[in-house]
Specification:
By secondary structure, the protein is an alpha/beta fold. Helix content is about 40%, strand content about 20%. The protein has a seven-stranded mixed sheet, with helices on one face. β2, α4 and β3 form a beta-alpha-beta unit. The longest helix has 20 residues, at about 170-185.
Length: about 210
């Protein structure tokens, strides 16, 4: 597979189409989503991707996510906190891990190496909110810095939606611009949810 070609082809896709294209291209079967909230992304992945099993994890199970668990036989909802809940999985067993829970730098830096060990070679470690951004409720995000450091330390190629560069310095600049764009869009009362493009990141375990 020409991963760089795929990276460029799906660059402008919104999150659901982006990850369904990734999952289908890599023929991924077993996935874990950490931080499911209402379970909307979980539903979309099960309906439009090649996943045969998706495990959703959150420490606070919303009724909508619980309903998703009831509606789909191939979905399993678990209550737990990352990265502690990673111990429930065997090393090198998962095709996909998608992280979208606590966005603080220290948390992401701690969970990345733990979940990395659970992904099989050729599988994808990924996540949401790759941008320099400060949320009114959660505070300053640190996903971008933690992921860039992880890739730099392990010499990994990093891919980010909305961008076609793999250069880590360029991706940091992109995250700053993406954060500013997200801030402006969310302040614009005319903007819809679809107008706010929040970057996702991913890497392929070697």
């Amino acid at each position: 597979m020409d991963i760089q070609r795929l990276y460029k082809d799906i660059r402008e896709y919104h999150r659901v189409n982006y990850f369904c294209a990734l999952i289908n291209a890599f023929q991924l079967k077993l996935g874990v989503e950490v931080g499911v909230r209402f379970g909307v992304f979980s539903r979309d992945l099960m309906e439009s991707s090649s996943l045969t099993k998706l495990i959703g994890i959150d420490y606070d199970l919303h009724k909508d996510a619980i309903q998703t668990d009831k509606d789909y036989a191939k979905y399993q909802l678990m209550c737990g906190r990352s990265p502690d809940c990673a111990s429930l999985f065997t090393d090198n067993s998962l095709c996909l891990v998608y992280l979208d829970n606590d966005h603080h730098y220290a948390h992401v830096k701690a969970e990345l190496p733990v979940w990395y060990e659970k992904v099989k070679v050729g599988g994808i470690l990924s996540g949401h909110d790759f941008m320099e951004y400060t949320d009114s409720g959660e505070g300053k995000f640190g996903v971008d810095d933690a992921v860039i450091e992880f890739c730099r330390e392990r010499n990994y190629i990093l891919y980010v939606s909305g961008c076609d560069s793999n250069n880590l310095d360029n991706l940091k600049e992109f995250s700053v611009a993406a954060g500013e764009n997200c801030k402006n869009k969310r302040e614009d009362q005319r903007a819809t949810h679809e107008d706010v493009m929040v970057p996702n990141w991913w890497l392929v375990k070697q």
